[in-house]
Design goal:
The chain has a domain at 62-143: Nucleotidyltransferase, domain 5, CATH 3.30.420.270. It is built from 3 helices and 5 strands. The chain has helices at residues 16-34, 89-104, 121-133, and strands at residues 62-67, 73-75, 78-81, 110-115, 138-143. A 5-stranded mixed β-sheet has the order 3-2-1-4-5, with helices on one face. It is rod-shaped. The relative contact order is 0.12. The model has no long low-confidence stretch (mean pLDDT 79).
């Protein structure tokens, strides 16, 4: 039996043009995505470990003196002077002890005076006089909330 072979054979070979298009699209995708990737070296992180400190870390205790509208003076929310008390012996004694402790620890004694907006200015001057007697020089001022 003789086989019948048609004169025109359909082209059934491998098509290279569509494969090249697919490769170019994939290459384009990876080129675009490569710009969005962050390198790990860009993150400024330090991992915990055994790092040597150059010196002692200083922690400062802040002393807060509140002056109320009525003139009452309190140290760290503990009332120490009534409005009629101008010499403030308890406040002076406490500040002298705090200054001595700060000097022994070789740290500055930080004091913040929080005054009520309606408090008398003369009461703030009385507190400054007590601070001067205790030889505390690092003083900041702020106004309490209205």
């Amino acid at each position: 039996m003789k086989r019948f072979i048609p004169e025109e054979l359909p082209m059934g070979g491998f098509q290279i043009a569509p494969m090249i298009d697919v490769v170019f699209v994939i290459m384009l995708f990876f080129m675009v995505m490569a710009g969005a990737v962050k390198v790990e070296n860009e993150y400024a992180t330090t991992l915990p470990g055994n790092a040597e400190a150059p010196g002692a870390t200083e922690f400062f205790d802040e002393i807060i003196i509140n002056i109320s509208e009525a003139g009452e003076v309190s140290l760290n929310d503990e009332p120490l002077a009534a409005p009629e008390n101008r010499d403030m012996q308890r406040l002076r004694g406490t500040l002298l002890r705090l200054k001595q402790n700060a000097d022994n620890a070789k740290t500055p004694a930080l004091v913040t005076i929080v005054s009520d907006p309606n408090a008398r200015y003369s009461r703030t001057v009385d507190v400054l006089d007590v601070l001067a007697q205790a030889k505390i020089e690092t003083v900041t001022f702020t106004v309490g909330e209205e």
